[in-house]
């Protein structure tokens, strides 16, 4: 970067360094040429001095989707805390949807701030596809992200989490377990369906019809109304705690006792889940661990640019058993 500025301005590296550090022994004409070169190259003046001199801005970018949802919001928070603990500032771009155009715009914006690397929170299949053709030259790590091309990934083991909670319900003597899923485009929803089906298959049970949801309590409520009217339903695994809240509300309105008639379990362990009525059995995701590992992988990528190889790290989930599940 410093070489580019020096070449365009027609000065030496030392002169660029003196200008950026406000050295008094620089002629006004030379200072103007250097700053004009910085502007023409698209660098931002408030960050460029540190970036050009040290080749590191000590700033990391984060691209995220829909941070109003508990999982993505908690992931971003974990990443930010881990970055600050490592001595880095964080610049966050939140997108309504993560597609190729959105990711490219976000990367361009962060590149203007001379970030050293970027973490992309990519829980949707469309986001994973957008990571397949990232421009070279800037280290990137994806949280979730599926295969994500050649990008390193960090994720919670969604399949194992769903398997744990389904096996818990089967172990309580329930003949089968129904499932209220998340949106079909979400990799997390897909992984939870896979784990649920695998646990049922291993136990020799057929998987019932999947009831689709969209992560919202409203969609859980609607699924709960359907389940309350079905015969033989004794256990339900809901793909996130917000939808589980809606299921519990529907069951209460329909006079379905939980866990007396139907056991209910969720996923995420949101802070409110232990205060649901009854307290919710769920799967805890360690978002702090996801943040730490994401930053570790990204910093390693920054430090070993030419020797980099793709890495995929999986953070284990934890089953949290509370009063919403009981023997059949």
Task: Provide tags for this entry.
single chain; 328 residues; alpha/beta; 434 Repressor (Amino-terminal Domain); Rossmann fold; 3 domains; six-stranded parallel sheet; 12 strands; HTH_LacI
3D architecture notes:
It is elongated and about 85 Å long. It has helices at about 1-10, 15-20, 30-40, 45-55, 70-85, 100-110, 125-130, 160-170, 185-200, 215-230, 240-255, 285-305, and strands spanning about 60-65, 90-95, 115-120, 140-145, 150-155, 180, 210, 235-240, 265, 280-285, 310-315, 320. Helix 1 packs across helix 2 (about 15-20) and helix 10 (about 215-230) crosses helix 11. The chain has twelve helices and twelve strands. Helix 5 (about 70-85) links the parallel strand 1 and strand 2 (about 90-95). The chain is about 45% helix and about 15% strand. It starts with a helix and ends in an 8-residue tail after the last strand. The model has no long low-confidence stretch (mean pLDDT about 85).
Uncertain segments: none
Find the count of extended strands (DSSP E, 2+ residues). Answer: 12
CATH topology of the largest domain, by name, is: Rossmann fold
Mean pLDDT: 87
Cα(first) to Cα(last) distance is 66 Å
Tell me the series of helices and strands, N- to C-terminal: HHHHEHEHEHEEHEHEHEHEEHEE
Fourth-tier CATH superfamily name of the largest domain: Response regulator
Number of domains: 3
CATH class of the largest domain: Alpha Beta
